[in-house]
């Protein structure tokens, strides 16, 4: 998919992402990068005694992967000016070996006082291979215009 400019975003438009499998190696790399070695993510014996019965990925790792999936669509490649903010909910666990994907829906577009940019809000629904919703939320982005 080619990059979209502000004018290309139409409220209601849906953009699916590719899928990605989350591995134990991803979780351990994220723990090392972030410094978050919470035993729920890194200790199989501890995690076996939790409601999940096994270790789960960090919620923020899932969110980071979703950001990468968005970039892989190509829609914002070279046309994004800034990531302005987000609202996000973690509604289910991401287990080692889960394959996740996101559906992006253009929720809102807003012109700004500067003609070279506009603000786009994308709503995300993130599911696993069992079609269970595991995360959802919105990203607000500043995008270039064609002008």
UniProtKB/TrEMBL annotation:
SUPFAM superfamilies xref list: Thioesterase/thiol ester dehydrase-isomerase
UniProt domain MaoC-like: residue ranges: 15-122
Entry protein name: MaoC-like domain-containing protein
Species this protein is from: Immundisolibacter cernigliae
């Amino acid at each position: 998919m080619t990059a979209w400019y502000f004018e290309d975003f139409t409220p209601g438009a849906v953009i699916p992402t590719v899928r990605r499998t989350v591995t134990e190696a991803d979780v351990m790399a994220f723990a090392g990068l972030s410094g978050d070695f919470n035993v729920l993510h890194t200790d199989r014996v501890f995690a076996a005694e939790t409601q999940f019965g096994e270790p789960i990925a960090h919620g923020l790792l899932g969110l980071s992967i979703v950001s990468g999936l968005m970039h892989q669509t190509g829609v914002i490649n070279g046309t994004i000016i800034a990531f302005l903010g987000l609202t996000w909910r973690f509604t289910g666990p991401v287990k080692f070996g889960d394959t996740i994907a996101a559906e992006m829906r253009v929720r809102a577009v807003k012109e700004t006082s500067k003609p070279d940019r506009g603000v786009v809000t994308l709503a995300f629904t993130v599911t696993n291979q069992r079609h269970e919703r595991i995360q959802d939320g919105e990203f607000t982005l500043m995008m270039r215009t064609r002008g």
